[in-house]
Write a structure and sequence with these properties.
- Chain A: Residues 2-233 form the ABC transporter domain.
- The complex is a heterodimer of chains A (240) and B (462).
- Chain A is of the alpha/beta class.
- Chain A has a domain at 2-85 and 154-235: P-loop containing nucleotide triphosphate hydrolases (Rossmann fold, 3-Layer(aba) Sandwich).
- Chain A has helices spanning 40-47, 90-100, 105-113, 116-119, 135-147, 165-180, 193-199, 221-235, and strands at residues 2-11, 14-24, 29-33, 55-60, 63-64, 75-78, 153-157, 185-190, 202-207, 210-216.
- In chain A, a hairpin with a 2-residue loop joins strand 4 and strand 5.
- The longest helix of chain A is centred in the C-terminal third of the chain and has 16 residues, at 165-180.
- Chain A is globular.
- In chain B, helix 1 packs parallel to helix 5, helix 5 (86-104) runs antiparallel to helix 6 (109-133) and helix 15 packs antiparallel against helix 16 (343-368).
- Chain B has two domains: 2-199, no CATH class; 220-459, no CATH class.
- Chain B has 462 residues and is mainly alpha-helical.
- The mean pLDDT of chain B is 84.
- The relative contact order of chain B is 0.07.
- Chain B has helices at 2-26, 31-53, 62-65, 71-83, 86-104, 109-133, 137-155, 162-174, 180-199, 229-241, 243-255, 260-263, 273-292, 303-308, 313-334, 343-368, 392-415, 418-434, 436-459.
- Chain B contains 19 helices and no strands.
- Classes of the chains: A alpha/beta (240), B mainly alpha (462).
- Chains A and B meet through strand 6 and helix 2 of A and helix 10 and helix 14 of B.
């Protein structure tokens, strides 16, 4: 379970995130939606202790992330290309992450077998370093690495962006499988309302750092979200 | 880099102004003839330097392709841009003053100007030839082998190529209208470069980026190092596969020869005992200092991964430490050729190596914790000095790194003799290693305290 208490983040007096109290129960597939600058990445960075909260704190399965590092063994993430090691081949990168999580080469190979479809023959054995792969293929490698070692909490920032349609559908299947798993909490953010409503059990909408909607996903959710973001356009003064 | 350019300009300017007098008065030879004799080597070397260092205009062409310009314009613009590159301008600082001096000394201006024009046309020929050469590795070795062979033949007076080339250059002076031949040649080359360029102006042809072919490496032999092996494997790949790290390794290799300045008695001041010990510290510590000072900046490109993955800081640090120790041991062994200058000199080097391992290995890691410079592994920019790497804290930490061992050694050396000096330094090294855990705790604290600032700093890519 992930719990935030009085959580806020400000840069030079400008608040970029202020979610107060938020609870993500264990096993939930949690979606974060919002426009650019709404605070999605900031929230994930706080969860991974990459930035310091201005007030409050986050606890991840009972561990306060900015005072203890004990959350690291069961948490994994892919936020952006700074989570990739450019001079490694994808295989080496997977083995590296595997070793950090106590898996040997064979374990990782077995694990990767399950992703042959997802890779679509473009990642493994390609004689290319990660830095020379296309943006989409880099993302594939990063996302799969975040699944290595049976983490209990998986954080993916904009996992659908840059992926081709087939891969998007495959990724939705993979994440949906985690939805059934009550031990694994998945947190994703997305600009794609359709995808996020399909794979998440719960969707939180952030606007200028604040939680403006907290929806348990149902059939009506997509419409509700589209309505919300369309309203934003209508409400902007002077833009008609 | 700017400093280097200014230095080159100043050197060329001084040479250009004084070459005439140096050759005429000191060597009692005809200056123009001597210059013409060596001009062949000058031009070949110029081509070689261009090949190695001059950046091709292709690099900045991509953004122009999408803008409403004709392709011909883009190519012309790129080629003309090379005309004002440093590699063309620099020669003016030699040849123009030299020509002016010739005219002052009574050479006919028209003929001198014709000669100057011819030489400059040839230099520009090099400029355009280089456009074709870009990326053809075989050429490099052929040309280089060619000069070495010719130079050797000339040195042993077997075959002197300049005998044939010198008159050619001389003709540009004595028969001025011949100077139009190289100009014509240059124009032809420009035309071919233009055509070649224009034909290759596609993203998958001339503008394609070259990728190294990658192969997955296991490096299983490193597994014997237990929990730190996973980081060691990465560090070895880091060093092997990136431009910047390779430069660092090359520089630290050159440090091994630093002692030659001191032990060959080339410089008189350097013969004092403290100086010799100073040299020994750097001979064995080249890699230690040049690589170690940028830990953890080497991992700056993926620092968020390192900070959120399941990594124990102690292991990460320990791996870097072992790498530094292994490199120091290796350099100490490589430096064994100093035995040629006597066993006592090599003993100095071994003692300095022990101090580097015992104390400096974690002193540099400590200093590195305060260096928050993001490193672009794929480029050599800033490889030769980064002002951000010097701040009060890192400067303060050089005291135990260099001054303390020198002072210890000097005390022993001047009180009793060199052996007491060695003994004191070795004792300091042994004593220092006893504090390893303490210092590591301290470094760990620094890392944790500076973590957020470091993450922000690494985000600012220059």
């Amino acid at each position: 379970m992930i719990v935030t208490e009085n959580l806020s983040k400000a840069y030079n007096g400008t608040t970029v995130l202020n979610v107060g109290a938020l609870e993500v129960p264990t096993g939930q597939a949690f979606g974060l939606v919002g426009n650019n600058g709404a605070g999605k990445t900031t929230f994930f960075s706080l969860l991974l202790d990459l930035v310091q909260p201005t007030s409050g704190h986050i606890t991840n399965n009972g561990i306060q992330v900015n005072t203890s590092e004990e959350w690291k063994p069961f948490t994994s993430a892919f936020i952006d290309e700074t989570f990739l090691i450019g001079y490694l081949t994808p295989e080496e990168y997977f083995y590296f992450i595997g070793e950090l999580r106590g898996l040997n080469k064979e374990d990782v190979n077995v694990f990767l077998n399950g992703f042959a479809d997802f890779f679509h023959g473009e990642i493994l054995g390609g004689k290319k370093y990660l830095r020379d792969l296309s943006k989409g293929n880099q993302k594939k490698a990063g996302i799969v690495a975040a699944f290595i070692g049976k983490p209990k909490v998986i954080v993916l920032d904009e996992p659908f962006a840059n992926l081709d349609p087939t891969t998007q559908i495959r990724l939705k299947k993979i994440i949906s499988a985690y939805k059934e798993n009550d031990a694994v909490t998945v947190l994703i953010s997305s600009h794609d309302l359709l995808h996020v409503t399909e794979v998440c059990e719960r969707i939180v909408v952030l606007d200028k750092g604040a939680v403006v909607k907290d929806i348990k996903t149902s059939r009506a959710t997509l419409q509700e979200l589209e309505g919300f973001f369309a309203e934003e356009i209508l409400n902007v003064p002077g833009e008609d | 880099m700017a400093f280097f350019a200014l230095y080159m300009i100043a050197s060329f300017l001084i040479l250009g102004g004084s070459a005439y007098y140096l050759i005429e008065e000191k060597l009692q030879l005809n200056a123009l003839e001597v210059i013409n004799q060596y001009l062949f080597y000058y031009l070949v070397l110029d081509l070689f330097m261009r090949y190695m260092l001059q950046k091709m205009p292709v690099v900045n062409i991509k953004p122009l392709l999408y803008l409403p310009f004709e392709k011909a314009k883009v190519v012309q613009f790129s080629l003309w841009k090379t005309a004002i590159s440093f590699f063309n301008v620099i020669h003016a600082f030699f040849f123009i003053p030299f020509s002016v001096v010739l005219i002052i000394n009574g050479y006919p201006p028209l003929q001198v100007l014709a000669w100057l024009m011819a030489i400059y046309a040839l230099l520009y020929c090099n400029n355009f030839i280089n456009v074709f050469l870009n990326g053809v590795n075989a050429i490099l070795f052929v040309v280089f082998g060619f000069i070495v062979a010719l130079g050797t033949l000339q040195y042993y007076a077997m075959f002197d190529v300049t005998q044939y080339t010198q008159p050619v250059f001389q003709y540009f002076y004595s028969v001025p209208y011949l100077a139009f031949v190289p100009v014509l040649f240059m124009v032809t080359l420009y035309y071919f470069a233009y055509k070649y360029f224009k034909g290759n102006l596609y993203l998958d042809a001339g503008l394609a980026l070259k990728h190294q072919e990658a192969a997955t490496e296991d490096l299983n032999w490193l597994n014997r190092f237990g929990s730190i092996s996973v980081f060691l494997k990465n560090d070895i790949k880091l060093i092997k596969r990136n431009k910047r790290t390779k430069t660092t390794v090359l520089m630290s290799f050159l440090f091994i020869f630093y002692g030659l300045l001191f032990f060959t008695n080339a410089v008189e001041v350097y013969q004092a005992a403290p100086w010799r010990f100073f040299a020994a510290i750097f001979i064995t510590g080249g890699f230690l200092f040049s690589f170690g000072q940028f830990v953890p900046s080497w991992d700056s490109a993926y620092y968020p991964l390192m900070m959120s993955q399941n990594i124990r800081y102690r292991d990460y640090l320990n791996a870097k430490w072992w790498l530094l120790v292994a490199a120091t041991l290796l350099t100490t062994i490589l430096a064994s050729f100093y035995l040629y200058f006597g066993w006592e000199i090599y003993l100095t080097i071994i003692v300095a190596g022990l101090y580097n391992i015992g104390v400096n290995s974690y002193m540099v890691l400590w200093g590195g914790a305060y260096v928050k410079t993001p490193i672009d592994l794929t480029s050599n920019k800033k490889a030769f000095g980064d002002s951000q790497a010097f701040n009060a804290k890192t400067l303060l930490l050089t005291v135990p790194k260099i001054l303390i061992p020198i002072i210890l050694y000097s005390i022993g050396h001047y009180a009793v003799g060199p052996f007491l000096g060695y003994l004191l330094v070795v004792l300091a090294g042994v004593l220092g290693s006893a504090f390893k855990d303490k210092v590591f705790n301290k470094i760990e604290k620094v890392y944790k305290a500076e973590k957020y600032k470091t993450l922000v700093a690494y985000k600012q890519k220059n």
